[in-house]
UniProtKB/TrEMBL annotation:
UniProt keywords, alphabetically: Membrane, Mitochondrion, Mitochondrion inner membrane, Protein transport, Transit peptide, Translocation, Transmembrane, Transmembrane helix, Transport
Function: Component of the PAM complex, a complex required for the translocation of transit peptide-containing proteins from the inner membrane into the mitochondrial matrix in an ATP-dependent manner.
Superkingdom, taxonomy of origin: Eukaryota
The protein's name in its UniProt record: Presequence translocated-associated motor subunit PAM17
Record lineage: Eukaryota, Fungi, Dikarya, Basidiomycota, Agaricomycotina
Any single GO BP term: protein import into mitochondrial matrix
Cellular localization per UniProt: Mitochondrion inner membrane
Any one of the GO CC terms: PAM complex, Tim23 associated import motor
PANTHER family per UniProt: PRESEQUENCE TRANSLOCATED-ASSOCIATED MOTOR SUBUNIT PAM17, MITOCHONDRIAL
Membrane association type: Multi-pass membrane protein
Entry-linked Pfam families: Pam17
Primary localisation category: mitochondrion
Source organism of this protein record: Armillaria ostoyae
Subunit structure: Component of the PAM complex.
Length: 216
């Protein structure tokens, strides 16, 4: 439109030949249209991408609300059983593997290792291998549990945050415990049902009364 309305006087003032000026103005108009189209396309693409993400978040929240506490605690208890079940073979594997490896090494009682008797050193290393198995076992059990219960794993993760908030709110303050009398199940790891959760609450209250109230 500006090309049609441009007068010869304006073209002369710009100091450019009319064909060259028309070509430049046409290129500018084309670039403006391309930029506007690209901006609109990017905005539409962002909105299209954001809508599924928002709907997915809403779906996750609604599914988490659909998982009641009894079902959540049952799934949590099954996860704890898987972790415990995998800890035993992991410890045994670490123990036998360490014993097989360090037992096959040449040992000279007259040559200490880092100032320690070789038999004691290799025994400590074997025990360390068993400790590694004890640490790896729960992680392996949790991974296997997530494979078996992959449909419910996301719902359990969503409930875990709320459950741990309840545990932190209702448990006894750690500063009240003593080395000879620790807080019972401080992290609520043995809670696997509503009955166990109520018993855990009673144990926490009993421990708090025992510590805070003077004996008669």
């Amino acid at each position: 439109m500006p090309l049609v309305c441009a007068s010869p006087l304006k073209i002369a003032v710009l100091g450019l030949p009319p064909p060259l000026l028309i070509l430049r103005l046409s290129n500018m108009d084309r670039c403006t249209r391309m930029f506007t189209h690209s901006f609109r396309t990017s905005s539409a693409r962002i909105q299209t991408t954001a809508r599924p993400m928002f709907s997915r978040c809403q779906t996750t929240l609604s599914e988490a609300k659909a998982l009641n506490w009894a079902e959540y605690l049952a799934l949590r208890g099954s996860r704890h059983k898987w972790q415990t079940a995998m800890t035993i073979p992991s410890c045994a594997l670490g123990l036998f593997g360490g014993a097989a490896y360090f037992g096959s090494l040449d040992t000279d009682p007259m040559k200490p290792i880092w100032g320690i008797d070789p038999f004691i050193f290799y025994g400590a290393c074997t025990a360390a291998c068993m400790g590694v198995g004890y640490i790896v076992g729960p992680t392996l059990g949790s991974a296997l549990w997530r494979i078996v219960y992959r449909r419910s794993a996301r719902l359990v993760d969503a409930r875990d945050r709320e459950f741990y908030q309840r545990i932190a709110k209702n448990r006894v303050d750690a500063s009240l415990q003593s080395p000879t009398s620790p807080v019972p199940d401080y992290y609520g790891e043995r809670v696997g049902s509503l009955r166990q959760y109520r018993r855990w609450l009673r144990d926490q209250g009993k421990y708090k009364r025992k510590v805070l109230l003077p004996e008669e």
